[in-house]
Amino acid sequence: MRDVIAELIPGWDAGQTAALATVVRTFHSAPRPAGASMLVTSDGAVVGSVSGGCVEGAVYELAQQVIRDGRPALVRYGISDDDAFAVGLTCGGILDVFVEPVSQETFADLDSVRTDLDASVPIGVVTIIEHPDARLLGRHLVIRADGVTGDLGSERLTHVVGDDARGLLAAGRTATIGYGPDGERDGEGLRVFVASFAPRPRMLVFGAVDFAAALTRLADFLGYRVTVCDARAVFATPARFPGADEVVVAWPHRYFAEQSAAGLLDARTVVCVLTHDPKFDVPLLELALADGTLAYVGAMGSLRTHDDRMDRLRAAAVPEAALARLHSPIGLDLGARTPEETAVSIMAEVIAGMWGGTGESLGDRRTPIHHSVDVRDDVDSGELV
């Protein structure tokens, strides 16, 4: 929903009905993750994608039908269907797609969802995608850290699902959960889709160098909120880093300590140290490696710089377990030469660490392309969006 809400709101404001198609569950090498959305407006325009082109034609026809009759639909596309290749999902994956009519009548809280998304406030949306009572299909709850808005049809169901959804929102997870018709945790017949919209993950880039300029542009493209920090005011200027959300003049370790103390760093935060100057690097890395929860900590430099840096960190009593979390020299071996190529190398390593990738050529593998995310038995497709 996040990717299409800007185009959805004008029609909603005008009292029109659109159709929102959302991937709610994936299996095998599905081309798009749970949470991917495609919008079909009342005048037939299309925004977004649920499969990167594989089944969009079939989903578009279903969306037009949903707009006409107002009845939500849950459809599976993939190799388990006899007509899988007819609709074009030839990648070997399976998608469950929920298509719902969206209007002021069906989703009265949509405008408040938009407001929170624009303000980067963590918010979740629960949608009933399966229920024995067809009248409850498409009911929503809006989940925030301080409470729940909406009604799923009964007080018990609203309470149980709302409680579970708040836990998923806190973890930044999107998932499908099954219950009994009135929220029985050991029951079946009801499924809800919980979409968690957390603020953009942060990337802290230390060192206002040419490599940082290229890295900030690529990280911004990949959805990170990027901060460039350097103690040298002459280099740390917004004009040099148009891809950064903010440019800070401060000693790196002091800025990191302030952000950590304020609770502004989390398990999705990426730290890239590009200064290769020990007076900046070592105090900063001592703090970053001591954190233990960050998604990624990498430091640029030659092998000689790396060896010297490791010696200094050991002399500062940084434990070996913490040193093992340091990606240095930073990035994957792509043979990169230019700042732009180096940025690709760094982000490739970040992505591999996020999803459990190996960095090897896909052509040399005979295992599934997409790495699975381990979840509880009663929670499916728990993926970040």
TrEMBL record:
This is XdhC family protein. InterPro entries: MoCofactor_Util/Proc, XdhC_CoxI, XdhC_Rossmann_dom. Residues 12-78, 118-180 form the XdhC- CoxI domain. It comes from Cryobacterium zhongshanensis. Residues 203-350 form the XdhC Rossmann domain.
